[in-house]
Amino acid sequence: MPAALVARELRRRFGPVEALAGLGFEVAAGELYGLVGPDGAGKTTALRALAGLVRLDAGEVRVLGQDPAGGGEVRERLGMMPQQYSLYGDLSVAENLAFFARLYALPRATFRERARRLLALTRLDRFRERRAEALSGGMYKKLALACALLHEPAVLLLDEPTTGVDPVSRRELWALLHEFVHGGMAVLVTTPYMDEAERCDRVGLVHRGRLLEEGAPRDLVDRYAAEGRPGRHGGAPDFEDLFVARVEGRA
Ligand SMILES: Nc1ncnc2c1ncn2[C@@H]1O[C@H](COP(=O)(O)OP(=O)(O)OP(=O)(O)O)[C@@H](O)[C@H]1O
């Protein structure tokens, strides 16, 4: 089966900055893939390119075999949650969902059923009448995720979905993601958190617009440990040790 998401040799320059310098990776249906890297590594630019929102200097992206910049049907099968997700602050939780349902032209009965399920999953059902601007950071992100999932996309792109979210809500958000991935969704997530990287099926370590290393987090750490490197606390190395060593190695 062809990969749900393909990024091939992506290149993009912003003036003197080479944001993407040949980045490539693939994400299968039913896989949770994490792009991990320091600030400015090119993660957001890669995600936006996959959504067809960045003009590339070279390389190509494919979403379910199609070019997302071509518009049309594939856009409808794509969900995206950018870092700054704009909900309507003066609308309630329920009204925000209804707004996005109209945007996706969902039939009323379909919307009702999905909104009910998403509100239950995100545990926002008790807050359906609360205005979005009065939600906590974690609840706001969960509502954004619910809005991005309302049209049941086959592919989901999430840019640092848990930044500013408390540990309990972070855990809930990840549990939700795993549930959707079990259902066959392809999910690409960027994260600056090492513990989150470890929750992905596979991760790509991005630095200066390139992939330094890729694989299942456990395999990457095992490979690193096999090089005879100790962890920062003297014990076995973990993902954070690997990350710091790889990035510093290229500094
Ligand atoms: N529209 C733009 N105009 C100019 N420079 C840009 C633009 N978008 C990104 N860049 C630059 O490209 C580089 C990669 O940025 P990008 O946002 O993709 O990194 P990132 O890995 O997502 O980092 P962060 O987590 O800090 O957002 C950075 O140096 C950034 O300043």
From TrEMBL:
Top-level taxon of origin: Bacteria
Annotated ABC transporter domain residues: 5-233
Signal peptide (from-to): none
Record's keyword terms, sorted: ATP-binding, Nucleotide-binding
UniProt key word S-adenosyl-L-methionine: no
SUPFAM superfamilies: P-loop containing nucleoside triphosphate hydrolases
Protein name: ABC transporter domain-containing protein
Organism expressing this protein natively: Anaeromyxobacter paludicola
Lineage: Bacteria, Pseudomonadati, Myxococcota, Myxococcia, Myxococcales
